[in-house]
Amino acid sequence: MTGLAALATADTDPTAWAPSQFTLDNGMAVLVLPDHRAPVVTHMVWYRVGAMDEAPGKSGIAHLFEHVMFKQTDDIADGEFDRIVTRSGGRSNAGTSWDYTVYYEQVAKQHLATMMALEAERMTDLIIDEDPEGSFITERDVVKEERRQTYESSPSRMLQEKVFAEFFRGHPYEISIIGRMEEVGALTPQDGQAFYDTFYSPENAILVVAGDVTPDEVRRLAEEHYGPKQPSGLVSDRRNWQALAPLDRTVAVIHTDPKVRQPVWSRYYDGTSLLLDRDRALALEVGLQVLGGGSTSLLYQRLVEEQKLAISVGSAVYSFLRDGGPALIYASPSPGVSLETLETAVMQEIAALLEAGFDPADVQRVRNTLAADAIYQRDSQMSMARSFGAWVTIGGDVQDLLDYPNDVRAVTTEQALAAVRQVFRPDAHHIEARLLPDMEDAE
Amino acid sequence: MRRTLKTLIVAMMLAGCAPTGPEAPRAGSDPFEVAVYDGAFATIQQFTTPGGVSVWLVEEPSIPILSLRMAWKTGTTSDPIGQDGLTDAVTYMMNEGAGDYDTQAFQTRMEELNMSFGCSAARVSTACSASMLTDNLENSFELIGLAYASPRFDPDPFGRLVRERAVGLETRQTNAGYLASRALVEALYPDHPFARQISEDSLAALTPEAAKAHKDRLMSRDGLLVTAVGAVSPQQLAPLIDAMIAGLPETTERAAPRPVDMASAAPAPILVDLPQPQSLVQFIGPGVTREHADFYPLAVMNYIFGGGGFGTRLMDELRVARGLTYGIYTQVDPDAYLPVLAGGGTTKNESAAEFVDAIADEMTTMAETGATAQELEDALLYLIGSYPLSFDSNAKIAANMMSLRLDDLPVDQFDRRNERISSVTLEDVNRVAATYLDPARYTFVVVGEPEGFTD
User: Fold this and answer.
1) What's the rounded Cα separation, in Å, for the pair A352 and B316?
2) Same domain for B177 and B322?
3) What is the pLDDT of residue B222?
4) Is B139 in CB contact (< 8 Å) with chain A?
5) Could you tell me which of A442, A433, A364 has the C-alpha nearest to residue A160?
6) 3-state class of B38 per DSSP?
7) Counting beta carbons within 10 angstroms of the beta carbon of residue A222, is it exposed (0 to 12), middle (13 to 18) or buried (19 or more)?
8) Shortest Cα–Cα distance, B66 to chain A (Å)
9) Quick one: DSSP state of residue A242?
């Protein structure tokens, strides 16, 4: 493979493309990501509030509230929000995470002002239905169905919920974003109103517009639609959670379900996130990709290709969280191989590979792949708006994303290896997870 | 959206006129014509390479990448009897080693070039797609060409494929979506080739040798369709494509399956037991192909009834008003061999029967009383106004062009589609609603532990 390295360049010209950033007088941040290929825009409003900000016993309110934001305001009747968007040829949706909540519309560019008017309207003028049989309560039933669909009908998701409850114990991340079923079922319209009053305000919001627009157009429209919104003054410095404490115990979590036909084994270790420790997170991204990222990785070669003990194996780090960064290793066995055999083999291979060290050619290839991903990402307006919006909302700097290709290329073999060795050091605690068939019901 | 169709000869490429530079392509010395269709959504350049490959290209210089799609009109129905899964195996193996590169070396080479290349099979088509950086065009095309000319079909990756598929045979037994679609297939067209599926026996019958031989029945120079979007000109692209396909066989015999003749709808919902707290409901009934006069009215009616997400009859009633579901949808699939209207959603087991009844009731209401003028206006505004969103990335445009090509649709179809949609009237919508939304046309399946049904 020598001589090929020179081909593996994916240089980005930092002067060729750049976002614009400014802040409105009311504290609302604005980010513009130009993309002039098609006459469309992606318009997003991000709020610095997520499931981590929920009061004890009120899990799920951030996500349920996101649903309620599509109901009525003092000027927009129930059902009209979606109708105005679709009559403009637009698509809208929203998402809630532990760290943030985002609302967005994709639309032909001539309708950008209409979308801003809609988002500005529901930022401050939402009406929450207090009728015990009204839209808030019906939407609560919808969210319970969502939980049944996305969690309770999915054994792997149920296992993950249990694992995160252990891994993040003592931190708000210990509860799933969608919330606990019994707590969601007890949420009231008053809970919704209190949540809205506390967190929805222009100084707690970030506007992201990607697409066929200029920063000047966005500034003019944003000042017109969002500018008049007065800051509530309630939201500053509320997010005082600290970075997750290191694991102080090793625990095994098992989830069985008669639907499981293929066992899965995994372990979660302390890693880090790009916001908590950028250099180490970059090194860890590279190192865990060399170790277990895709079919060219070391673990895949050993365990899937050579020993044929696994049908899948991999490692990765959750590097985009605000307060934590679990490093994950997972594997699923070939037919006839027990999880115990697989676990032993995986851990032996990790120990041997980390003892031997990484081949600099592997590290270089991974670095270039991660850097090139940033170029391919530019093909998707939505993906760009999501990445930049999420990063800025959790407190990151736009320049960090622009620097990512160069910074990831600067990670050395030694740094990548050291970061992975630190994760898997002999005295490191971990949460182990096993997804197993329910033996009583298995055939 | 006025369409503008102007066919021009914009390029006569002669030897020596190729783009200059140290890596300028040298092949492709014959002149070729480029016809330009300047549509509202994309400016499509159509040409046939000197090597005989028909290409649709959209030049997009702003990002240094190329999205490439290649397809043939032969798919999984070409699997020999007893070897279900063979076409899938061929596509799986296409990036698992070629020439001197074994699987690891091939995958590594793709990463070194920061490119991707992979193939997949549908019922009546096989497609390969690739993404590459324009800096690495020549090397990337060369690697794909090697996969087309001399794929290795090594026993090791083939054994991995067999292990993965064996696991798939296990996991599908508790996959609600698989169980629902399988029950519908068994009820409606159990003997058609579209009902065939991989099994333990057929998996055991697959061999690398059989896959290698089968590849030549799927992929040939003749019948290859190419679409591309990216920072590349026809003059750059043509010789790269010609070199890439040099190792494919000249031609192959392609047989189309007969259209599906669906059985009558099942008189009652088919119940499939699966231990989970929620029931998956799916339903399917006969539809029309794209050529049928009812196709565009059906597309608009579907949007109003259940295709458009929020604001549709089904979402308004079952989710917003009654809180029975996280989501319910319907869709029109104008498949040339199996045109259908279909839909589905999930609800807690306790409300499964109520959910199915409510869907049928909404069908009846729509069939009997039709849509309102306001609903039609809203639907047309969305269906036409949202269309540009399908053309905002290189990958989407390349995929959209390929779906036109696989359906033998003309280059101005993107613009024609809006004309046809905007001419749909309320009478059209209500006529097709009355015909196609009769609940008796639909077979329902419910997977879970549903309550309220009497066997």
Assistant:
1) 58
2) no
3) 94
4) yes
5) A433
6) strand
7) buried
8) 10
9) P
B100 contacts in chain A (CB < 8 Å): none
Helix (H, G, I), strand (E, B) or coil at B229: strand
Distances (CA, A) of A376 to A8, A316, A372, B235: 15, 20, 6, 24
Residues of A in contact with B315 (CB under 8 A): none
CA-nearest residue of chain B to A366?
B111
**A203 and A114 assigned to the same domain:** yes
State both tokens at A435.
Answer: 């997804």
Say if residue B71 is in the same domain as residue B146: yes
Q: What is the phi/psi pair of residue A253, to 5°?
A: -115, 125
Listed residue (B168, B174, B179) closest to B272, CA to CA: B179
pTM recorded for the entire structure: 0.92
Distance, in Å, from the CA atom of B265 to the CA atom of B269, rounded to the nearest integer, reads: 10
B385–A106: do the CB atoms touch at under 8 Å?
Answer: no
Query: B46 and B110: one domain?
Result: yes
How many whole angstroms separate alpha carbon A208 and alpha carbon A22? 11
**CB of A103 within 8 A of CB of A44?**
yes
> Within this chain, do residues B419 and B365 fall inside the same structural domain, yes or no?
yes
Residues A56 and A138 in one domain: yes
Helix ranges restricted to H, B189-256: 200-205, 208-218, 234-244
A47 lies in some domain: yes
Report residue A432 CA to chain centroid gap: 22
Query: Which of B113, B274, B389 faces A40 most closely, judged by CB atoms?
Result: B389
Confidence of residue A390 (pLDDT cuts 50, 70, 90): very high
Q: CB contact, 8 Å: B386 with chain A?
A: yes
Which of A2, A66, A68, A86 should be substituted to probe chain B, the one whose Cβ sees the most B Cβ atoms within 10 Å? Answer: A86
Average pLDDT score over chain A: 93
- What value of ipTM does the predicted structure carry? 0.91
Distance from CA of B367 to the nearest CA of A (A): 23
* Model confidence at B145: pLDDT above 50: yes
Q: How far is CA A280 from the centre of its chain?
A: 19
3-state secondary structure of A317: strand
Tell me what the mean pLDDT of segment B146-158 comes to. 98
Nearest chain B Cα to A80, which residue?
Answer: B311
To the nearest whole Å, the CA of A224 is away from the closest chain B CA by 25
The residue from A210, A225, A240 where one domain ends is A225
Residues in chain A with CB shorter than 8 Å from the CB of B103 are 295, 305
Instruction: Compute CA distances A397 → A259, A294, A393, B7, B168, whole Å.
Output: 44, 29, 9, 49, 43
- Write the single-letter amino acid at A20: S
Burial of A165 (0-12, 13-18, 19+ CB in 10 A): middle
B321: which chain A residues are within 8 Å (Cβ-Cβ)?
138
Task: Write down which residue in A191, A225, A259 finishes a domain.
Answer: A225
Domain that includes residue A208, residue range: 20-225
Q: Which two tokens stand for residue B98?
A: 């070629």
Catalytic residues of A: 66
Residue B139 forms part of a structural domain: yes
- Residue B348, domain extent: 270-388+410-448
Is residue A90 within 8 angstroms of chain B, CB to CB?
A: yes
Q: Is the pLDDT of residue B376 over 50?
A: yes
The tens digit of pLDDT for each residue in A197-249 reads 999 999 999 999 999 999 999 999 999 999 999 998 877 666 767 889 999 99
| Residue recorded with tokens 């005295």 | A427
- Work out how many domains chain B is built from and give that number: 2
